[in-house]
Design goal:
mainly beta, Jelly Rolls, four-stranded antiparallel β-sheet
């Protein structure tokens, strides 16, 4: 059975952005502001909600993730956590 080490990188998005792929295995987004947002133009992310894309550690996400703010809120913040797994 393979063992994996996980490292994570956290950022806060405050503007519309295309989050570039970086060979990570899991991505989680949490809307910590008060403005509605949408992921990849079809996944709503309301204030307080979260969304995640989880793969087996040996599978990497190879797709950009688009985040766009759509609401009238003034606090535009989404916490993004990307987790990368390495065998070892």
């Amino acid at each position: 059975m393979s063992k994996y080490k996980a490292t994570n990188e956290n950022t806060i998005i405050t503007d519309n952005v295309i989050h570039q792929r970086k060979e990570y295995g899991t991505i989680q987004m949490i809307n910590i502001g008060d403005c509605d947002a949408v992921i990849n133009d079809n996944i709503p992310l309301l204030p307080g909600d979260s969304w995640e894309w989880v793969n087996h550690p040996s599978v990497m996400i190879d797709q950009d993730t688009n985040v766009r703010f759509t609401g009238d809120g003034v606090d535009k913040r989404i916490l993004v956590e990307m987790i990368t797994y390495k065998e070892g």
